[in-house]
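Ticket #242: bound-state structure for flavin-adenine dinucleotide.
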Amino acid sequence: MTEIGNDRRLAAVWRDARVVDVRHHGDIAVVLRLDVPDRVLHRPGQHYVVRLRAEDGYTASRSYSTVSAPSDDLVELYVERVPDGEVSGFLAEVVEPGDELEVRGPIGRWFVWDGYGPALGIGGGSGVAPLVSMLRHAREVGRPELLSLAVSARTAADLPYREELEAAGALVALSREPGGFRLDAAAVGAIADPGATALVCGSARFTLAMESHLLAAGQPADTIRVERFGPSGEIDEDEAST
Ligand SMILES: Cc1cc2nc3c(=O)[nH]c(=O)nc-3n(C[C@H](O)[C@H](O)[C@H](O)COP(=O)(O)OP(=O)(O)OC[C@H]3O[C@@H](n4cnc5c(N)ncnc54)[C@H](O)[C@@H]3O)c2cc1C
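RESOLUTION: The complex was predicted; output attached.
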């Protein structure tokens, strides 16, 4: 492994990662743990691109955030199964331990947290994935108090890494559980922290709402960083330089 950082040239190289572990979460999602040869250590918040290749040469590439801490020997990805999803469906249904997957990364320079300053992570559904990487890193560097988390899903079953997040003291909003609540303007207003970097991740709808609640609560715009998990489509070859 090379040193942690942003070696964009090395991160742009496609590598054949070996699938070491596959954990299915019903038909909702799959957790893949990959052995990536000669990998560049990621910064919490960065993502990988996974490329599937058919025998006729057709390829499909999608982005998946790292869930693991940089120090983990393996790269962990959480893949939510999207209805009729080309890549998520294959990863959730077909991939087995021992398979090889083409990957490229780590990618991303903006939505990262290295464990130094105070941060507020807000994630919806699979958008908690990069926040769990940040949480694991915060524990590893002995600075868990720097990272506050608020996460949201419809039900307990829909929230990835729920037990780990709850154990870390995250504010857990489950909108369709009895006694549950939403991350609405009041809830976000109560956790907004102008002195922290706010890292918001999830669907376009979720991130837009959270950004607007944060701004209304006085969170300065230049402290808010957003990662949207919308349809990613084919990845441009130049993306590794973003
Ligand atoms: C930077 C980045 C990081 C990401 N990290 C993760 C991650 O850690 N875990 C994860 O599960 N996903 C993540 N995504 C989303 C992921 O890249 C894919 O978009 C997703 O897996 C769907 O791909 P697919 O090929 O299965 O679906 P497609 O075949 O591309 O789409 C099938 C249908 O689903 C819709 N759709 C596509 N993507 C989504 C979505 N995310 N939510 C709802 N509907 C969708 C499409 O509009 C289409 O109608 C990330 C996206 C980005 C841009």
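RESOLUTION NOTES: Residues 204-216 form the longest helix (13 residues).
TICKET STATUS: resolved
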